[in-house]
Amino acid sequence: MPHLDFTQPPFDVLSAAERQSIKKNTQVRYLAKDEMLPADDLQYFYVVLKGHVEQLLDGDFVASYLGNNHTTHLNSNDWFDSRRSPESLIEDGLQEDKNIDSQPAAYQFRAIEDTLLLQVNGVTIDKIGAQNHFVRQLLSENLPERLKALQLRRSGQHLDAASSDSDDPQEVQQIMLQPVIDITLLPVHIVDADNSLYQAARIMTEAGLKHVLVRPTDHWQDANPSDRTLGILTDNDICRAVSDQQNPAITPCQNYASFNLRTIDADDEIGDALLTMTRYRIHRLPVIDTHGKVIGVLGQSDMLAHIGHHSQLISIEIEQATDLPSLATAVELIGRYIRAQHQNGIKMGNVSRMVQTLNAQVFTKLWQLIVPDDVMENTCVIVMGSEGRGEQIMRTDQDNALIIRDGYEHPELAKFADTFNQHLADLGYPLCDGNIMMNNPLWRQPLKAFKAQIGTWFKNTEPMHSIYLSAIFDGEYVCGDESLLIQVREHLKTAHRQSDLMFVRQFALAALQFGDMNRWWQKLVPLLGGKPSAYTIDLKKSGIFPLVHGIRTLALEHDIFSDPSSKGRLKALVQIHALTQERADTLLEALEFFMAQRLSVALSTDNKYAKEVNPTTLSALERDLLKECLAVVKSFKAQLSRHYQLEIG
Q1: Among 77, 194, 510, 595, which one is least packed by beta carbons within 10 Å?
Q2: Tens digit of pLDDT for each residue in 6-54?
């Protein structure tokens, strides 16, 4: 009798007792060509041993599942849970689109040729899943849960459910997703801005701290004062005052305190706190509750001790770089960091956002090495595209710009910009084929000229205008005067409100421009007898771009410009009830799945663009998740089409 391959998911996570239970409740099932699984048999889990089963929904093709006679180039036999409902695959997430379509009750399964199946009792699977969370994740009807299972497999840690090793990368990832409130915070001690440095120093000494928070003099003038306006005074500030020969007994704290602090919300993730500290090179973050009150201070040393992360070492290497060769060493470390994090199964969103932070430090250091201080003070370097969104993993094309303060001039600005782009290319960040870089005068302009240019783009008279707007929408601060970018973002909001009412509708069309890739299973089967590499899926066109641009369009419609990342945009859309939380989570998980697959291709082939994946190289689990993520894209495009009254091309 044929037997299950316990080296393949979902069976590779079973204990000996669970394997025995599976064996006792499994039988071989034969389906003749064109035979359908009867409704009474849609209560089992099936593994395709030989043959080919087609999945249908109301008579329409959904997916194919192949046995080992078709798997010369595939990693494992396909499997499917016949109990899974259509609602688990496609779910409307735009609030106004709810309950538009009613879904059929069940899928249908038909043998395309004579087929042998292993039929596993569904109750047995459920009992095992109730005790084994790895099985439960692998077979969940919830796509984000199944994607977590894939991350576990990539980490190599799923085989030992009892592992309690504190260095387990999955545990590190879970820690990164915890709220900052889970870390022991430093106590809050607040002094008034007009209190003396001596009074502040005495409080620090008594509390055993190296800082106190400082309340500005106008704090109580607001109707609802927020602790986000607090400043901070450190022991280094007091030492600076003494070195300035100031009398601590009469010198007010406000003379040496730092205001406009970076803060973090209590329910934000530890990973976000690490990114903020790394990016802005700060060591303390006041933690704010839902009422705008500070409840503690997150110290960098406490956080690093909590998570044991090593990206700080790369940050230090970048900070200490004094020339291009030493900076190149740090850039190489970023590449190694990406490979290690991916191999350890760390969540792709966490990796990409940390890479964005480290890359921004590289760009900042390079700009500092090139330009004099007055250029740094009067310009703002931004990155755009996937780098701006924090979704860039590989070093693909540069997308950057230089915003110049109105009235400021320097005779060598063009030379500085060209040197910056060329040095980045030398460091492994290729020049942009579309020339969206600061060495292009279009992307190196004074603030007023940038605003005028944006107004022209909103008229959308040329095909490139939507591309240029997409780039600037994704703009993120790197270094220089950040207020220049803030003013650009405010102007984007103003220009959008003044634009034609049909602009957003036309802008959304780009998300629908690429054809439906959801029928790749039908094209895949005949290729398996010949050249399997003849058919590949473009991960960028079929997955990443429709999601990114669709989310970008919804954000534009609702004047969401403060956070260019897809994650930030989805969060904001949920907050204004434009998307459901469940839908936003699914869209983000699908996007990160495509990013992870693209990175896997890049790391395995040394192809820096890595746009395409060959389905025959994927495991059954990965193929199944690819199918579901493509279905998410298809449903999202359909929602955009309904929402903006467009036709899908």
Answers
A1: 194
A2: 777 778 888 888 888 888 889 888 899 999 999 989 999 999 988 899 9
**CA gap 552, 424 in Å, rounded:** 27
The Cα–Cα gap between 336 and 559 comes to 38
Distance CA(279)–CA(318), nearest Å, equals: 12
For the chain, the farthest-separated pair of C-alpha atoms sits apart, in whole angstroms, at 94
- Is cis: bond before 10, omega within 30 of 0? yes
pTM of the full structure: 0.67
Element (H or E) spanning 469, and its range? helix 463-473
Low-confidence ranges of the chain (pLDDT < 70): 1-3, 69-76, 87-105, 152-175, 221-223, 304-313, 515-535, 606-610, 648-649
Closest by CA position to 561, among listed 610, 488, 623, 620: 488
Dist. CA 553–CA 505, nearest whole Å: 9
Structural tokens at position 585: 């989570």
Strand partners, 380: 403, 480
Give the pLDDT score at 125: 92
| Whole-number CA gyration radius for the chain | 28
- Decide: 285 and 262 in contact? Cβ < 8 Å: yes
Report yes or no: 465 and 473 within 8 Å, Cβ to Cβ: no
